[in-house]
Amino acid sequence: MLTLEGTLLAPVNRLYILMGKAVRAFLELLVDSAIFIILLLFLHPRIDWPMLGVSIIGLFCLYIIWISVDFIVSGIQLSEEGLASLLSEYVPRVIMFISAVYYPVETLPKILRTLSYANPVYHAVVLFRSAFYLPAKDVNILVSISILLILACIMPFVSVRLFDEIYKKYGIKGY
């Protein structure tokens, strides 16, 4: 029906398309956040409230980073569905593996530990854990929030640029 081509040819900034995608995902995320907040109120854990505020900012930055990466994958999906499904299936698993969500980062081999320190998910996890536990000796909260803020400011523009480049170079195939 050529609606995809019409949408992409419309004189609308790609950043608006990215923001529309982000708002939809954010509304879905609100349900999970509400459940988490309700659990926090009932369980009464020991919480460092200022650190929880910083970690929520960090998680919001991570959300912006992931939406931006998803927009790049959407551009790839327009031209190469197979590659996009491979990326969307396995890359998140690798990122979660090296983000030290389920185990301490010290258990990873040195080369993977270095990749963990470059992973924005790791920094968001460190910030969030710091609201409930004392931060580890080698954790620098300021570095973690700085990395997340910088990436959250840069990634939307990079993703829109890459989306446009992919679309101009390869066009739409398979839709």
Task: Walk me through what this model shows.
This protein is mainly alpha-helical and 175 residues long. Helices cover 77% and strands 0% of the residues. It has helices at 3-9, 14-43, 49-79, 81-97, 110-117, 120-130, 141-170. α2 packs antiparallel against α3 (49-79), α3 (49-79) packs antiparallel against α4 and α6 packs antiparallel against α7 (141-170). It starts with a helix and ends in a 5-residue tail after the last helix.
Helix vs. strand class: mainly alpha
Q: What's the count of strands?
A: 0
Large-scale geometry: globular
* N-to-C SSE string, H for helix and E for strand: HHHHHHH
Give the topology, please.
Elements: H1 3-9, H2 14-43, H3 49-79, H4 81-97, H5 110-117, H6 120-130, H7 141-170
Give a short synopsis of this structure.
This protein is mainly α.
List descriptors.
175 residues; mainly alpha; 77% helix; globular
